Amino acid sequence: MSGEKKYLDDITRLASIKPHRGPATPGEKEAAEYVESRMKDMGLNPVYETFKSIPHFPMAWVFHSALAIAACVLAIWRPWIAVPILIFITVSFVGDSSTRFYLIRKLLPRGPSQAVLGTIKATAAAKKVVYIAAHLDAGQMGFSLEPKGAERTAILCNKYLGMQPPLLALIFYDFLLNIFACVLVGAIGLNWGTGIFLGVTAAIHLIPIVIFIPHEFAGISPGANDNASGVAVMLELARRFKDNPLPNTELRFLGDGSEETYMHGMACYMNMHQKELDKDNTYFLVPESCGVGRPRIVVAEGVSWLEEHSPELCAALFVAAKELGYTDVTPVKLRTGGTDASPATVRGFKATVIISMNENDYVPNYHWTGDTPDKIEVETLDKVANIFEAAIKKIDAFY
Q: CATH 3.40.630.10 residue ranges in the chain?
């Protein structure tokens, strides 16, 4: 079967799952079982793991903002009690949005999620391990993600800020302003100036509350591009390397659930397995929403601040793209959200991502009903797979 047909077969099968494959849902489980069967057919001896994820990240962030408002109200009478509360909220948000640790989110219920891992052994003693990790689930369709409005916002932020829409970063900075406002109230007392400043910084938190509450209860997108396309690329790479294993590198193909919980699934996987892995010789390559637009290499991502992905791994991808003649492959830094490379990067592993975007640094039909198989560009998928394949061979030979 041709690579083109198999890409589309995999994407169509995953996007057709009903109800759609939201994180920690039966649809995600069905997707995992499909990927497991594909790995079995290729002889990858898949291992199926289950874990509990916390899928309610929109409500987790609503709780952070709501608690910040409550702390600012408390500051009217007890500012020095409000300050440590706000510091705790800020620390919790930083941990949550970076996937390093979870505090307030732990108050929310967990759900069953899963990961499937297939392996191609090295032909000699393995000196390195390369993960190709693609998430299985699809995301919620909150009103703020309506494509025309979301793309206009991306255009404006690129034009005037030189970055993607930094909503989540603004929440973090507002927490810092809340702390500063409470310190001012405690130091010089409550007056018109400090009161207005305190009230405005508290009121800003109504914005994420209004955005994220509907997001929590929205429907799930078909997820053809995000991220059935990434799963299809992962399976295509497994097909290519199955009959041509590498001498020095063990390849691991990871289909993980619960990425759309702000990468909580990959964070769970890393927490379960990172002690088994050698940070100097383990690499994570992530195909993410890579089926529409121009391939971009993610060199950094983050909310509160940018975390730089592995320079050597990014360089391997850029060199591979150049040697393949893909001159339109350029770097991008993600500020709107994150990918499954973040949990690996913040835990000290080498990781990076290929994502495909249009000319406005926007993933078309992101988390929307239009994310369907008919929009997928097979040529783009093949470019991404070719870049990853060439880079993996370089890692095996040189790194």
A: 3-55+111-141+220-398
From CA 86, how far away is CA 208, in angstroms rounded?
Answer: 17
Task: Tell me the H-state helices in 204-325.
Answer: 206-217, 230-242, 264-273, 311-323
User: What integer best gives the mean pLDDT of the chain?
Assistant: 96
Length of the chain: 399
Alpha helices in the chain (DSSP H): 3-15, 26-41, 57-74, 79-98, 147-160, 167-188, 192-203, 206-217, 230-242, 264-273, 311-323, 341-346, 378-398
Q: Which two structure tokens, joined as six digits, stand for 117?
A: 């891992």
- Residue 125 has, within 13 A of its CA and on its CB side, a CA count of 1
The rounded distance, in Å, linking the Cα atoms of 333 and 297 is 9
**pTM of the predicted structure, to 2 decimals:** 0.96
Task: Assign domain 3-55+111-141+220-398 one CATH number from 1.10.1370.40, 3.30.70.1350, 1.10.3720.10, 3.40.630.10.
Answer: 3.40.630.10
Give the tokens for residue 174: 């507002």
Tens digit of each residue's pLDDT (9 = 90 or more) over 259-277:
999 999 999 999 999 999 9
Return the bridge partners of 357, or none: 294
Say which residues have a Cβ less than 8 Å from residue 58's Cβ, sequence separation at least 6. 140, 142, 212, 213, 215, 216
Contacts of 22 (CB under 8 A, 6+ apart): 28, 55, 137, 138, 139, 140, 220, 260
Look up residue 339 and give its DSSP letter: -
**Mean pLDDT, residues 236-244 taken together:** 97
Closest to 132 (Cα-Cα) out of 237, 226, 62: 237
Query: Is pLDDT of 166 > 90?
Result: no
* DSSP structure string for 88-114: HHHHHHHHHHHTS--SGGGGSPPEEEE
Contact status, residue 265 vs residue 134, Cβ threshold 8 Å: no
Angstrom CA distances, 182 to 70, 77, 80, 174, stand at 12, 10, 7, 12
Q: CA-CA distance, 35 to 13, in Å (whole number)?
A: 10
